[in-house]
Specification:
alpha/beta, FAD/NAD(P)-binding domain, nine-stranded mixed β-sheet
Length: 414
């Protein structure tokens, strides 16, 4: 390891806290800066999957044909708000290009290599902390109500098969034996046995953050207003509480990372895929394992606070008000997946996934500053890849070679 330094991490989600812990265990003094508490951003508004098989990018062949529906149907699984379209066009052009067959293949290879590191990275990060109590094994079941939706999934199954992902096709009576809570209409399933899930994502991040503090780390609830930069790169953070001098800087602020990265020398086409979340406190007959509906593109996860329904993609930026009709649509769809569902007491939320057009995160050193590092853009895979990212960033800060080739995640690939 290189000499111990003071590292400032901007962002207290699963990615930022994971970076902080891995850096701290390398011997660095670490401060995490975020205006919210640990896990109170996108980390708490997700499906809770920790999936080593999610190597299919969001943009796939034929995505261009779906754009008109995205614009015309505000409740579609992937929708674009008209008012945001002018600002989104540059991102959207790159997004469509990323769906070319050759690019999808290369992206899935890069994702698979990252995902393969997730189980061991989680085990190392959570060891000896209260975080382990929130992690469950047991797999995840993708469900399909119609023959047509199952046929449409063949392409993604073939892609996963090429990446060596383990799965099992389950049909008929075997589906009910695997998951008795399924509605009779569900005809097909694909079971991924190596997927874990989290019973409380915010609790998980808080437990990891507490471990970080117990080991001498600093959590500062402050908003970064600006980054002071000179010829050598970032020199200080400006917050409402004053200046914070910088030695090493890690930007892991999720969907809010773009302007910070630009100040630090990296221009990235980062946007947000807004996802909606419903929590049902008394769901009726919840599933024993997490489900993902292939018909309606959302997850159903048993959690400590009730049953979580999470999913869809809405491209509308960081500041548009939520459209909770999308969340109510999730409740309707869940009623088709599960045999018995009680929606009483439902609560709704929305989260901002930090998304690049090619579904790959940015894991890199700033091209203009050797002491600044980028760790954002994980899209749907932030919870899965947080510990992997922490491990890679610690290697980069320590001038070590990461366990995989990080070229596909360079900031200058755009």
């Amino acid at each position: 390891m290189s000499r111990a330094r003071h590292v400032t991490v901007v962002g207290a989600g699963i990615v930022g806290v994971s970076c902080a812990l891995y850096l701290q265990r390398d011997g660095h003094q670490v401060t995490v800066v975020d205006p919210a508490g640990p896990g109170e951003g996108a980390s708490q508004s997700n499906a809770g999957f920790i999936s080593s098989g999610s190597c299919v990018p969001t943009s796939t062949p034929g995505i261009l044909r779906r754009v008109p529906k995205m614009l015309l149907d505000p409740l579609a699984p992937l929708a674009i708000r008209w008012t945001y379209l002018p600002r989104l066009v540059p991102w959207l052009v790159r997004f469509v290009r990323a769906g070319a067959p050759g690019r999808v293949e290369a992206i899935s290879i890069a994702l698979a290599r990252l995902l393969e590191l997730a189980p061991e990275s989680y085990a190392a990060l959570a060891a000896g902390s209260a975080a382990s109590r929130y992690l469950r094994a047991g797999g995840v079941l993708y469900t399909y109500e119609t023959d047509a939706s199952f046929a449409d999934a063949r392409w993604s199954l073939d892609l996963r098969r090429r990446r060596g992902i383990d799965f099992e096709i389950v049909q008929g009576a075997d589906l009910r034996r695997l998951e008795p809570a399924l509605a009779p209409a569900i005809r097909h399933g694909v079971f991924y046995p190596k997927t874990m899930f989290c019973t409380d994502p915010r609790g998980l991040v808080r437990a990891l953050a507490q471990d970080f503090v117990d080991r001498g780390g600093e959590l500062a609830r402050e908003q970064v207003i600006d980054i002071e930069v000179d010829a050598g790169g970032p020199r200080a953070l400006r917050t409402p509480h004053g200046r914070r001098d910088l030695d090493v800087l890690v930007i892991a602020a999720g969907a809010w990372s773009r302007p910070l990265a630009a100040r630090a020398g990296g221009r990235v086409p980062l946007d947000t895929e807004r996802g909606y979340v419903v929590t049902l406190p008394r769901p009726g007959l919840p599933p024993r394992i997490p489900l993902l509906s292939g018909d309606y593109n959302f997850a159903i996860t048993p959690m400590e606070g009730g049953l979580r329904l999470a999913g869809t993609v809405e491209l509308a930026g960081l500041h548009a008000p939520p459209n909770y009709a999308r969340a109510r649509r999730l409740v309707q769809a869940a009623g088709r997946v599960l045999a018995r569902l009680d929606p009483d007491g439902a609560t709704y939320a929305m989260g901002h996934r930090p998304s690049t057009p090619d579904s790959l995160p940015v894991l890199d050193r700033s091209p203009r500053s050797p002491s600044t590092f980028f760790a954002f853009g994980h899209g749907h895979l932030g919870l899965t890849l947080g510990p992997v990212t922490g491990r890679i960033i610690a290697d980069l800060v320590g001038d070590r070679t990461p366990p995989i080739d990080v070229t596909p995640f360079r900031v200058d690939r755009f």
